[in-house]
Design goal:
about 550 residues, alpha+beta, Rossmann fold, Porin, 3 domains, ten-stranded mixed beta sheet, eight-stranded antiparallel β-barrel
């Protein structure tokens, strides 16, 4: 009794579709079939436990990690031969529509069949699928690369006693070398995966399901990543090693095999992309059109459709890539620009006729350097810049009558903004004096404060959350001739808004800040040397003059 999974990866690595992804999507095709029950006129087969569940899991992995568009993945569970062939026909029709819109492009198609196999046929809910049926599907889809993966599994545990108790019967299963027509087996760009060697059996574990299917499903995220994602070769090696090891632990032998024929490309075929998308591609509201983003020698291609009137931001992978425009007039040559996307980069596509985008101090935009160009469009990337600035301003904070300090102070300072980080140093001077019935005093306050903040680019203005600490020297003269020079300390936290004037290449920068402060200072009385704590708001305004910006 053979249970198996025929996994054929065929279809378009790159193509467009009816359902357009406004946030960008990778377009591949897959047909996934899972049948727990297989009908056969030759033998009564015990239903499998995991085939239909495995089919659903494979679909989830393809959509989540392998960049398959859900609209281009057909899932058939417990279906008949007719239902399977109808699903394959829908995929082939989708492929043809995509080719008509985009032209001939590299294609990848994936077929997953998990169920029983007997005497060279795949069993369904009614009539079996033959090698000729599989051949017809391959030829109908007509993909650049066809990858077939067959996992013929027996219904039962790997426990020896458990297997004997189920009375399992060995059946021939499905062998692509024997069952597929020679012209299909040897056709250009094919890879065939078989779950065990001739003469070996393949197993379904009571807990895990089909061994080869289980470990291949794990490989989407567990196999070693290389470059932009995980290659099919890496996933294959991961599944092979763990399948053989798990079977050996239970005294069984299962050794998957691979057959590769007439591949054009020698480079890696990336199949799973579990890595984080660490960069962003933003399109200006005035941009309109259809684009392809191709990674790593076109091993992953994503389509981006952009409507005029609203900005679009798409998460992208870092690494070598190219951006191609595809909505050109008939007969017009394709245009593309190569680029290297850095981790954390923020790329912008905008009409070249527009004025440069305004950025807050510490941020900027620079052209993307690379081979090629997109006519009438400019591709730039967010850049960290350093801005030095001198500033003069005013600070206010309430001060209790019995506590040393000046409510009003004039400020001079210097700031450095580089990307989101901002550092500042300011010096302040304030005066205060009071006369009482029998004594009076005059106070001069000198203070120095350092600040550090983290800011955001608001498209010209900049908003920082900041914290700081400072020290103050209080020079006090009393009417009776006495004097003293106590010191004080303070910490603060708040927000600062920078408003460049004008927004691009500003001459001056207006700053508004506010927050809260904690101060420690002595009392105003000549004998009051104790430190008093005050919690109070603090407000400020200043004008800065940029000195330099790289």
């Amino acid at each position: 009794m053979r249970r198996w999974l025929a996994l054929a990866f065929w279809g378009a690595l790159l193509l467009c579709a009816q359902g357009r992804a406004w946030a960008g999507s990778s377009v591949r095709y897959a047909l996934i079939v899972g049948n727990n029950v297989g009908r056969s006129s030759e033998i009564d087969l015990e239903p499998l436990r995991h085939a239909e569940r495995e089919a659903a899991q494979l679909r989830g992995q393809l959509v989540r990690y392998a960049n398959f568009d859900p609209q281009r993945v057909e899932l058939v569970q417990g279906g008949s031969r007719g239902a399977i062939l109808a699903a394959a026909h829908r995929i082939a029709e989708q492929h043809r529509r995509d080719v008509a819109e985009l032209g001939e492009l590299p294609s990848l198609f994936a077929l997953f069949f998990t169920g029983h196999g007997v005497a060279g046929r795949l069993l369904t809910a009614d009539e079996p699928l033959s090698g000729e049926d599989v051949s017809a599907i391959v030829q109908q889809v007509d993909a650049s690369l066809s990858i077939g993966f067959f996992d013929a599994c027996f219904s039962g545990s790997l426990d020896l006693a458990g297997m004997r108790g189920k009375g399992l019967v060995s059946t021939p299963g499905f062998n692509p070398v024997a069952e597929l027509p020679r012209e299909v087996l040897d056709s250009e760009g094919t890879m065939w995966f078989v779950s065990s060697r001739p003469g070996e059996l393949s197993y379904e574990d009571e807990r895990l399901g089909g061994l080869f299917t289980h470990f291949f499903t794990e490989a989407f995220t567990a196999a070693a990543a290389d470059g932009v994602g995980v290659t099919l070769e890496s996933m294959w090696e991961f599944a092979v090693k763990r399948t053989a090891s798990h079977a050996a632990k239970h005294g069984r032998r299962q050794t998957p095999e691979k057959i590769v024929r007439n591949l054009k490309e020698r480079g890696p075929l990336y199949f799973s992309f579990p890595l984080e998308r660490s960069a962003w591609l933003r399109m200006h509201p005035d941009v309109e059109g259809s684009f392809l983003l191709l990674y790593e020698q076109s091993t992953l291609v994503e389509r981006i459709d952009k409507r005029r009137g609203a900005a679009l931001e798409v998460a992208v992978f870092d690494g070598p890539a190219s951006l191609r425009r595809i909505d050109l007039a008939p007969g017009a040559p394709a245009t593309s620009q190569q680029l290297v996307i850095e981790r954390g980069a923020r790329l912008l596509v905008q009409p070249s006729s527009l004025a440069p985008t305004a950025h807050a101090p510490g941020f900027g935009e620079a052209p993307v350097r690379g081979k090629g160009a997109l006519p009438d469009l400019e591709l730039t990337h967010r850049q960290t810049r350093s801005l030095w600035m001198l500033e003069a301003g005013y600070r206010w904070q309430p001060v209790p009558a019995a506590m040393l300090g000046a409510p009003h102070a004039a400020l001079l300072g210097a700031d450095l903004a580089r990307g989101p980080l901002r550092l500042g140093l300011e010096l302040g001077y304030g005066r205060r004096g009071e006369a009482f019935a029998d004594w009076s005093y005059r106070l001069h306050e000198l203070e120095a404060r350092v600040r550090a903040g983290w800011g955001w680019d608001l498209g010209g203005p900049r908003l920082d959350l900041e914290a700081g600490a400072g020290a103050a020297l209080h020079l006090i003269d009393y009417a009776d001739g006495g004097a003293r020079k106590p010191a004080g300390l303070s910490v603060l936290a708040g927000a600062r808004l920078m408003l460049p004037v004008p927004l691009r290449n500003p001459y001056v920068i207006l700053q508004l800040n506010g927050g809260g402060t904690a101060r420690w200072a002595q009392g105003v009385g000549g004998a009051d040397h104790a430190l008093h704590l005050q919690l109070a708001p603090i407000l400020g305004v200043s004008i800065g003059v940029p000195l330099s910006s790289d």
